[in-house]
Design a protein that fits this description.
mainly beta; 9 strands
Length: 152
Amino acid sequence: MDETEKAIKKIKNGVFVVTFSLDGINYGLTTAWVNRASFKPNSVMVSIGRNRKGYNELLDCEIFCVNILGNEHLEIARHFGDTNGNNINNFKDLEFKFMENGSPVLKNCVAAFECKLVKKIDAGDHVVLFGEVLNGIDQEGEGMIFNREDFS
């Protein structure tokens, strides 16, 4: 690993599951790259890898939810981090409900916010989505910090 890669790896990120429904199917994709984009309007940016199952459907959805995971949610993060597609419409062993605009939200997440997709920008092997925050919930707990070794 070169010095540049070592330096970049020192950036700390949370762990999130982006959830959405499209044509009656629920999707969830784990990501570590979510940041606030603006205060007015309240907006966030989410980066998703093009190799992810559900990626194309995410680009077609109008509303998505960002679930912030806590340290106790590593298995949920791994589940939705699968790239083989086993996580598509696979909420069967997880408690979830729907947000105001129809996005599935994990009941045990530490917080979540539902967004309207307003812009997509190509970013190499990822796409950056900009979402205007529509509503949110805050629950008990602190957000997990991403550690690459947890997903190897």
